[in-house]
Every structure is written in structure tokens, then in C-alpha cells.
Amino acid sequence: MSKIKQMLQLHLNGVSNRKIATQLEMNKETVNRYVKRAKTDSMNISELLILDDPVLEHRMTGGSPAYTDERFATLKEKLPYLTKEKGRKHVTLKLLWEEYKADNPDGYSLTQFRFHCRQDSLASRWTPSTVLKGTYVGGEKIFIDFAGDTMEYTDPETGEIVTVQMFVACLPATDYGYALGVPSQRTEDLVYAIASGFKAIGGVPKIIVPDNLKSAVIKTDPYEPELNRVMEDLANHYGCVVLPARPAHPKDKSLVEDHVKLVYQRVYAPLRNERFFSLEELNKAVAEKMLAHNQKRMQQLPYTREEQFLAIEKPELRPLPSEDFQIRSYANLTVGPNGCVYLGRDKHYYSAPHALMGQSVKVIYTRSLVRLYSDGECVATHQRDYAPGRYTLVRDHLASNSLAYRDRSPDYYVAKGRQATQELGEIITYMFATTSVPPEAFYRSCEGLLHLQKTTDPSLFRTACEAALRHQRYRYAFIEQLVKTKCKGVEQVMQLEIEQECGELVPDHANIRGKAHFK
Questions:
Q1: What CATH number is given for 141-316 in this structure?
Q2: Where are the domains of the chain?
Q3: pLDDT tens for residues 184-197?
Q4: 0.70 cut: is pTM over it?
Q5: H/E/C letters for each residue in 2-20?
């Protein structure tokens, strides 16, 4: 769904459907279909873009996850073979199409087959020309990368030398630069650096152009790189798109590589003899050097990078969103018999509407929130809780029997007992009133008495309860034994109960010494 958001964002930026299809490596008819569907939706495109992915998915596809054409994926695997075979003598595209259709009866028609083969041929022959200075549009792109060399600071507590990765970004229209030290090149640190860069420049460019970093790109490909889902979410949050540079094409990102060299000269070199004792202290010094770099008069030009940035880039940047970006994680979980989904990362349970028991729901969670989706609708929102083995429950989600179970209390059982018989209500009242044990210890006994009342002759049960009240015996086992003996031999039942409480029965044996032995 993130790719569809990228497509809608480009359309909102005024990019043609044909160009969108080329940039995102989608079929043009697919782009046309989604754009048309978005235009006919009751919500406008800006409103669609702020929807959560499962909600947008349901509106755009009716819940179907098939966003790409499987025929193209099959044909794409064959393109290297087709290109090779096409160069052989007497081989025509129509012959290759006939062989392709024999293996793939549901594949493309001849027209589409020819189109994709020719597109592949053009792409393989195309090489970028020299990019002339001044051809970039203000506020359109930002190039990002990590410097090859690292910086460092000293941990004041341990004396350990801590290595820091240096994130570098530049706006190509004015060559305005930004640098920030982060602990690593992991996705979390890359996202933090990008968000910090946007805050520093006070806006958001339309396109983020990263190198093929492992933290940003899962699969490198000259035509269709597979982005990290976090990067797609970040782009959707800020209302921009991510178009990675092609692998093994340094000219695509030459400006940021040149800026890395400038950072070496104007940040690394001046700070080479300085010692820092925290990452914050290091980044403060880096920011001062980068400010001086951006305010330095450019050679053969009567202005600075900062002046050009304020004049050309700043007015064209998109405004920052009201909320900071939070990394989202995704999971498909099943609502268990207890009416909850189990988030394995935190070992915590979150409730869902009881009608969804046994069904699979989509879960999106951030550092602070957990949201559950079913059929394109958000059915539950919880504050994230990291306590393992605990439950986060919403009362309205619980079934009636679960509510009754959770609402148990002495008053609840007394009321239930009085509804059955007056005597049972009195027994339960005395049960809770004549002990210092926590009331929860008697809940199961109350359940047992209520069940016994339903399965016993009313007159017999009333007689048993009266006997229990008379002898001040309020335990379930005593009343059950009275029912079993039909209230005959109350004294014997009491004796049996006393012996059970002592943990053993006294045997009637001739070798046992009685009172006479001690006279």
C-alpha cells in the first residue's frame, strides 16, 4: 500500500501518470486505474494520503493485497533471456511472444509484450548525461548518504572511545549541506537523522534520494529497488517520495559525494584535535562548522549557500507535519479465545471486539500506540504497554460472560445467592463475613454452591442450607455432603469434615491405645 501512496503523492505533485509509471516501475494502466479510483472517491487525494495503510487498502482495492501485476513479474524474469534471443539471427519478437504464450497462456498480449521488451531495451542502452549545474529545481530533492570516515567521542565514565557515523545531506539546487553524527547506520538512526535534517532546514523536499544503504533499501535494482518499509512510512508521513540512486551509477549521487568531501575538509579537519565527551557535544561542534560552511562565500559566485537556500529552496519546501514521525511495525495476528491478540515482541495481550474471536486482524504499532484493523476499519486503539504477561483490556470489547467473570465481588455473589434462595444468600453472606481470608479465595466455592442449587431438588437444597446455617458451617464441601446424604446424619457429616480438615482419618483399630491405657 505504501507504493500506492507514493503514486498518489507524485500525482498530487503534478507528475503525469506516464512519468509516475516510469519512476515507480508500475504499469501505466495500473497507475491510470488507481488515480481514477482515487479521483472518484468521496475523499480527496490529500485526505486519502493521511489514512492508515489498511484503511486506504480497503478503499482502493476492496481488501485485496494484489497491488502488482503477476504477469509483469513473470515477464521480468524472462527479459534477460528474451534480450539475448532477440539478438540471434532470424528471431523476431512475435516468435518469442508465441513461445512465451505457450508457457504462459494468461500472459500479456502481443502489444504489451512488445512494449515491455522495447522498454527494457531502451533502459539497457540509456546512460545518464553530465548533469549541468543549475538544472535542479529548488525544494525538489534532497540527497542523503553516510560518510565513509567516522568521528568519535570519549565516554567520560569508562574512558571508552565511541565511534560515530556521520550522516550527510545536501539540497542539489543550492548545494546547501547538513551533517549529523549518529550511533550507527541502522534504520532507526537513519530515520532520526532524516527527521532532524528536515527540522534543521525547516521543511520537506518532494523527493528523498538515498544511496543504496542497507538501512533504506532492502533490494538494490536499477529499475525497481525495494525500499525498507520504514522508509516508505517516513516518506508518507512527510508527504514526499523516496527514489534511491541506481547502484553502480555514482553520477546519480555525485553532489552528495562531493559534499562528503567538503565535510571532511570543513568539519573533520578543523575538529581533528578536539576531544568530545558526548554525542550531543560532538554534534554541537559539527553544527557550528556546517553553519560556517554554508555561510562561506562560494568561489566565483557573489553569494553563499545559505543565501541561495533562503532564496530558492526554502520557499519551495513543504511544511513540516504537526507530529514527529514514529517508526511503525506491522503484524498479522489472530484474536484468541480470550478476545485478545498476543504481541510477541512485548509478550503483552491487547483486547479486540469479542465478535472477532478466531479471525486474523492487522496490527500496526509504534512506540506509543497499538492499533488493530479488520476489513479496512480500525477496531481498537491501545496505549502500548511493555509489561510482559499483562493484559490491556477495553470493557466494551469483552463478551458478556467475560464481563461477568471480571465483575465478580462478594456483593455480586450475595445477590446471585439471594436470587436463588434466601438461605443460600445468607450462607454466602456469612462465608465472606466470618473470615480474614481475601474474598477471592471463596469465588470458586460460590460458583460451586450456585451450580449445586441448580442441580439439586429445591426442598432438599433448602434443608441442607438450613442445616448449614444452624451448625454455622458455610463451606461448599459440607453442604455438598449433606445433599449427597439427603441431610441424614448431620453429625457424621460434620465429623467427616473435621477429619478432612485435620488431614487424616483416625482408624478404628484394636492396637490403638485408648483412654483406659493411661488410667
A1: 3.30.420.10
A2: 2-125, 141-316, 329-404, 408-502
A3: 888 888 888 999 99
A4: no
A5: HHHHHHHHHHHCCCCHHHH
